[in-house]
Amino acid sequence: MSNSPKDPTPGKAWSGRFSEPVSDLVKRYTASVDFDQRLAEFDIQGSLAHARMLHAAGILGAEDLKAIERGMATILEEIRGGKFPWSLDLEDVHLNIERRLTDLVGDAGKRLHTARSRNDQVATDVRLYLRSAIDDLLALVRALQGALVDLAEKHVDTVMPGFTHLQVAQPVSFAHHLLAYFEMLKRDAGRLADCRKRVNRLPLGAAALAGTTYPIDRERVAQELGFEGVCENSLDAVSDRDFAIEFTACAALIMTHLSRLSEELILWMSPPFGFIMLADRFCTGSSIMPQKKNPDVPELVRGKTGRVNGHLVALLTLMKAQPLAYNKDNQEDKEPLFDTVDTLTDTLRVYAEMMAGVTVNQEAMKRAAAQGYATATDLADYLVKKGVPFRDAHEAVAKAVRFAEHKGCDLSALSLAELKQFSPAVDEGVFAVLTLEGSLKSRNHVGGTAPEQVRAAIKKARAALG
Length: 466
Ligand code: ARG
Description:
- The protein contains 20 helices and six strands.
- The chain is mainly alpha-helical.
- It folds into three domains: 93 residues, Fumarase C, Chain B, domain 1, CATH 1.10.275.10; 248 residues, Fumarase/aspartase (Central domain) (Fumarase C, Chain A, domain 2, Up-down Bundle); 89 residues, Fumarase/aspartase (C-terminal domain) (Ribonucleotide Reductase Protein R1, domain 1), CATH 1.10.40.
- The strands form three sheets. It has a two-stranded antiparallel ribbon.
- Strand 1 and strand 2 form a beta hairpin.
- Helix 4 packs across helix 5, helix 8 runs antiparallel to helix 11 and helix 15 crosses helix 16.
- The protein is elongated, with a radius of gyration of 31 Å.
- The site of arginine (ARG) has 9 residues, from helix 7.
């Protein structure tokens, strides 16, 4: 308690027991209002639900509730209109709004904080924010999945070389390749939806850490705010940010998947591949080399993946070794979380647009598949079906590939007599399996690259997207 009659920390919500004000540096260091302003609308939503519950429980009078509702409506307008008087002296979004409310409606504003603490308040705000972000992101993931299916639909019969070790392995349908990313995004969406369930729990009522002495009704608040239930332990409710970590892990995986696709787009667009072209609006030129068209957008997606992965590590490290319950460390959860949401939102948006603008050079894809002995496995399988043991077939085909390599041609360009040198089991039927189309067609089972299967996969994907 200050001994001097003059308050050293005028306006602070917690000023009573302090004898000197914080320095400007400490004020700046400890404040979060510059970035947690973003929570404002959720803070108001939470406060209104809290006030209505206080009133229903007989803790807050009807007049006070009305005043709070009126004040909050004004504040919301001020915030949306960019007219709210944000102040660094008031530390964070919560104290800024509470102070403004009190300025507008008097004592009712001061009563709002009954039976709660900023600890359960901030945890509630972050959860409301993240739930809404997840809903927006889920829609964006689906839009990107849709763009992939649209492109796939046009390229079921487009043959490209499938790679392992970035060496031509076996021919695949380009649509099949695109649908691999559809599957990754499907799991990503599932993870986000699952994470949402754990985000969607109400911390409010935990107060500072131990609960409150007032007869509150947490279920009512949960219901009004659309939460699936309440956090069941007050210490856990105010302190853990595992839900934010889990979300960021989901985001890091999405970025990781997109960075793989980006890497492929970059390779495919490079002149030695020449498989695809991105629309000009996703590329830039070089200031010195006039021939260049650089795939800036996929490169940045690849780069920004590092940034989101970094946020995941930041949040894990933030949480690690924090004793129960709330610690100010947790104020540091916001910037990594917000930046993860922003980065992922922009990335998904730009990606869906970019995939809609991809043009494909089918000839280049086919040429590359034909040059890489992509049907060597098919030849081996053919021999096996003729009764040759697999290991011997493998050896015979390896020799045939070497021979073709010396001749500088594809397996399908060898004559029957030439092929027969490597195995007497070869007959005229061999040429059907040496074509790229034949190779694709023969992988006709669920998950295989046969056009028939790919068409079925596209149908299923469309149905799943609704
Ligand atoms: N700005 C704080 C945060 O983001 C709000 C909670 C502050 N609680 C406290 N006891 N200082 O975590």
